[in-house]
UniProtKB/TrEMBL annotation:
Gene3D superfamilies the UniProt entry points to: Tetracycline Repressor, domain 2
HTH tetR-type domain location: 1-61
Residue ranges flagged as DNA-binding region: 24-43
Organism: Vibrio galatheae
Keywords: DNA-binding
Single GO MF annotation: DNA binding
Organism domain of life: Bacteria
This protein's name: TetR family transcriptional regulator
Pfam families named among the record's database cross-references: TetR (PF13972), TetR_N (PF00440)
Entry annotated with the keyword Transport: no
Length: 211
């Protein structure tokens, strides 16, 4: 693995473990046993590393939430998107947990974030329309953006909300699963009988993980 990639992966691991604000470039360099000078050869500062991680996150986010073409079983489709939510929130949990602060101190990153979220919003609306076509949910087109925005808001702010509610909150897989259950609860009132049955199966599966 190239040194640049090692730096990015090490930073992601350390940010997730200890919080981005608590980790310096010296910590990252020591973690992978390179000199600070070697790190600065690849990245001028920590903010450049954060931007690189954000680029990885953005690519994975848009790839996972691009509407899937072709025939798919509805339960498989729902599970794919639910698993994607968990994977992204866990893999990049430092970003979700401290999003406002990270964006406020980097105008360029903030602009890139907004652009990515605009693309994501369009994809999510098309995904929801596909769920309507599969007779999983009943949502008028006039209500589509509002529902998608609510789900998007829960996903992007759930970890920050949990941290705000308790100073001792630890980001665990269980905390993320609670966010997924919250999103399912928002969709349930819009579900058809078939959709409700499948959402219940997903909900039961999430709950069983920590039973």
């Amino acid at each position: 693995m190239k040194t640049r990639d090692k730096i990015v992966l090490a930073a992601l691991e350390q940010f997730n473990e200890h919080g981005e604000r608590n980790i310096t470039t010296n910590h990252i360099a020591a973690y992978i046993d390179i000199s600070p000078g070697n790190l600065y050869y690849h990245f001028r500062n920590k903010q450049e590393i954060v931007r690189e991680i954000f680029a990885l996150y953005s690519n994975e986010l848009l790839e996972r939430f691009t509407p899937i073409q072709g025939q798919q079983e509805s339960l498989v489709l729902l599970k794919h998107y639910l698993d994607s939510i968990f994977t992204l929130m866990w893999k990049y949990r430092f970003f979700y947990a401290n999003l406002p602060e990270i964006l406020q101190r980097d105008e360029l990153l903030h602009e890139e974030y907004i652009q990515v979220q605009d693309k994501l919003q369009t994809n999510l609306i098309n995904i929801m329309r596909a769920f309507v076509a599969l007779d999983l949910v009943q949502v008028d087109d006039s209500d589509m953006r509002s529902l998608v925005t609510t789900l998007h808001m829960i996903a992007s702010s759930w970890l920050g909300y949990q941290a705000a509610m308790s100073p001792k909150t630890q980001i665990t897989e269980q905390v993320i699963h609670q966010g997924m259950l919250q999103m399912i609860s928002v969709v349930k009132p819009k579900a058809t009988p078939q959709g409700l049955e499948q959402l219940q199966l997903l909900e039961d599966g999430v709950k069983a993980i920590h039973a």
